[in-house]
Design brief:
single chain, 243 residues, alpha/beta, Rossmann fold, OB fold (Dihydrolipoamide Acetyltransferase, E2P), 2 domains, five-stranded parallel sheet, 15 strands, 35% helix, elongated
Length: 243
């Protein structure tokens, strides 16, 4: 069976169980094995954001005590989480806000099985696989960094500093090893000490890349023409894919 990871965030346990039963029913009829991650608040969801990024779909309640589902979704997107979000609510008042965070669907309670089936069918047929992550061991534990949130990596002595949108993660791994683990066409080795995510390049300044955090990353002098060419080719390819 094809395994499917789904996250459910709702402050009411009864709602979480009811939704899980309908999703499980869907999975059985589609010959899939479903796995769940459950969260009872927006705060708990954000605290486990790296696990959520590895889920294919997130069913997210809007009206919860504390952090609302819409605000939790905004923060997940700001952190680079690309998981498909299906909002669950008792009102249609937040329809426009759901578009701001690229929601895949918007369902009103009480749910019907056909509503769940339709939302899951659409997400699985039209949306990409869950965001790629980079597992790293740091601060005494293994963490999964969403690749979309990684701006660049740089070598400092025997350590590599991974600059993400939120923080700098320091690991004792070589840049060669990390580059092989990432294995993404969006990343470019522009210098023996630097690996950049081209999605976070704002432009070229002389012999440097200007990154989204305003950092200047050097381009290898020996391979400057090839590196610039690779970046230009990538830019054209991205523009073509968006057409």
């Amino acid at each position: 069976m094809d395994e499917l990871w789904i996250a459910v965030c709702d402050d009411l346990e009864e709602e979480r169980r009811s939704l899980a039963r309908m999703i499980h029913s869907y999975a059985q009829r589609r010959n899939r094995t479903v796995r769940f991650r459950f969260y009872s608040s927006g705060e708990e969801l954000l605290a486990s954001g790296q696990q959520v990024a590895a889920c294919r779909i997130l069913f997210l309640d809007i009206y919860m005590p504390g952090l609302s589902g819409v605000e939790a979704a905004r923060r997940l997107r700001a952190a680079g989480c690309g998981t498909a979000i299906v909002f669950a609510t008792t009102s249609l008042d937040h329809g426009l806000e759901s578009f701001d965070v690229w929601a895949a669907d918007y369902l009103t309670k009480p749910f019907r099985q056909e509503d769940i089936d339709r939302a899951l069918d659409w997400c699985l047929e039209h949306l990409p696989e869950p965001m790629q992550v980079l597992p790293v061991y740091t601060e005494g534990e293994t963490q999964e960094l969403p690749l979309a949130s990684v701006c660049y990596l740089e070598v400092y002595g025997h350590h590599t500093h991974i600059h993400t949108l939120q923080r700098i993660v320091v690991v004792r791994r070589s840049l060669d090893d990390l580059e092989a683990a990432i294995d993404s066409p969006d990343f470019l080795r522009c210098h023996r000490s630097f690996l950049i995510n081209m999605n976070h390049v704002q432009g070229l300044e002389g012999s440097d890349f200007r990154m989204s955090d305003r950092a200047l990353i050097p381009i290898s002098i020996a391979n400057q023409r090839q590196i610039r060419g690779a970046f230009i080719d990538w830019t054209y390819r991205k523009a073509w894919e968006k057409q």
